Amino acid sequence: MQRLEPGSVIGILGGGQLGRMIALAAAQLGYRCCIFSDVANSPAEHVSEKTIVAAYTDLSALDIFAASVDVVTLEFENIPEEPVKYLAEKVAVRPGPNVLATAQDRVIEKKFLNKIGIVTTPFEPVANLEGLEIAVEKVGRPSVLKTTRFGYDGKGQVKIDPDTGLETAFSQMGKGPGILEGWVDFALEISVIVARGMDGEIVSYVPVENRHVNHILDTTIAPAGVSPSVAAGAGSIARQAAEALNVVGLLAVEMFVTRDDEILVNEIAPRPHNSGHWTIDACAISQFQQLVRAICGLPLGSAGRHSDAEMKNLIGDEVKVWPKILEEANARLHLYGKSEIRSGRKMGHVTRLKVRAGRGER
Ligand code: AMP
Question: How is domain 186-356 classified at the CATH fold level?
C-alpha cells in the first residue's frame, strides 16, 4: 500500500465545515492541507496552511492546486465531475471521480444501488412536465419531486400531495432534470458511515438515528434504537455499496426504516457526513481521521465508541446559546468560525456524551 508520509499535503475540494474538520484531523496526524474553494474566508481556510480561491472550472487554478498537493479529497459532492476528472489525471483523487459521478445524481445513484441488489425508495426519472405526469401515474401520491443534481438540505424538493398541481410543482423544483420518489411513511431515518482503505479494509460506525427539522438535519442519536437485525442489515448495505463503488475514503448511507423494519436507501454521500460528527467526541477514531488514514494509505482505526451520544446542530440563531453549552460537563462544543449568522445556516454543533453517573460529572 502506497503510504503518504506525515508532512504530505492533502488537497480538499470545498471549504465548508466538513473541510475544516478534515483539516483539523489531518493536522493531528502531521499532514498539511490546501483548500480549493470558490468562496474566500471559508471555515476550512481558517485552519489550513494554504487556500486557492477560484471557480471549480478554472483549469489554471486546478493546475496550481494539483501541483501543491499529494492527494485530493472532497468535502461536498456538488462539484462538477469534469474538474475532478481533470485533477485525477494529475494527482490521486480519493474517492475517485467515478464515485462522485454516481453519488451526485439521484437517478444514477438509485439505478446503481438497485443493480447491486440494494433497495431504494421507488422512483421515476422526470425530464419535463409531461414526464412528471407519467411518473405520478406510476409512483402515485404522496410522492416527492427532487432535482437529480445539486440539491441539498431539502432545496429543490417539492412534495406532491393529492391536491398538488403538477405544473406548479415542476416549476417550484427549479432546474431539472428531476426524479419523482414515492413518499415513505418511515418509522425513523438512520445512516451508516463506513470507511474503506486503499487495501479494501472496511470499518463501520454504528447506525445512528437522524431527526430533521425543515429538511435540515437537527439531531443525531448514536446509536439508533433499531433491532439488531436492522442494525446488521444497515451495516451490510453500507459495506456492500462502498465495496461496489471501490470507495477509498468514507461513504455515508442515509436510509429510511419502515414500520415493518424494511430498510430503503435514500441517498449516499462519498464524504464525511453531518450524522458522523458525534464520532469526534464519542469514538476512538473520528470519521475525519478515518478519511485521512484511508486516503493517505494508513491502516484504518477502530470505529468503536466509548460513549453513546447525541449531536445537535446549531443552526442559525441557535448558535447564540454557545456560552451556556460551555457550562455543561458532558457537552462538546464545535463552532465553525462563520462570521455571519443566517437562517438555516449550520453554524456549529454540540455533542452531548451520555456518560455514566460518576464518570465525567462535574
Ligand atoms: P434528501 O435531500 O433526499 O436527504 O431529503 C431530505 C429529507 O426529506 C430526508 O432526510 C427526509 O426527512 C425527507 N425525505 C426525502 N425523501 C423522502 C421520501 N421519499 N419519503 C419521505 N421523506 C423523504
Answer: D-amino Acid Aminotransferase; Chain A, domain 1 (3.30.470)
Measured in Å, residue 109 CA sits from the centre of ligand 1 at 15
CB 156 within 8 A of CB 168: no
pLDDT at position 313 is: 98
Q: Which residues contact 144 (CB under 8 A, 6 or more apart)?
A: 157, 158, 159, 160, 180, 181, 183
Tens digits of per-residue pLDDT, 74-111? 999 889 999 999 999 999 999 999 999 999 999 999 99
Domain ranges (residues) in the chain: 9-93, 123-176, 186-356
CB under 6 Å to ligand 1: residues? 121, 144, 154, 181, 183-184, 189, 212, 215, 254, 266-267
* Contact yes or no for 87/111 (Cβ under 8 A): no
Q: How far apart are CA 179 and CA 121, in angstroms?
A: 11
As a whole number of angstroms, the distance between CA 26 and CA 253 comes to 23
In this structure, whether the domain defined by 9-93 belongs to CATH 3.40.50.20 is answered with yes
Residue with CA closest to ligand 1 atom 5: 154
Does the pTM of the predicted model rise above 0.85?
A: yes
What architecture is domain 123-176? 2-Layer Sandwich (3.30)
Amino acid in position 159? K
Q: What are the pLDDT digits (tens) for 101-149?
A: 999 999 999 999 999 999 999 999 999 999 999 999 999 999 999 999 9
- Split at pLDDT 50, 70, 90, the class of 356 is low
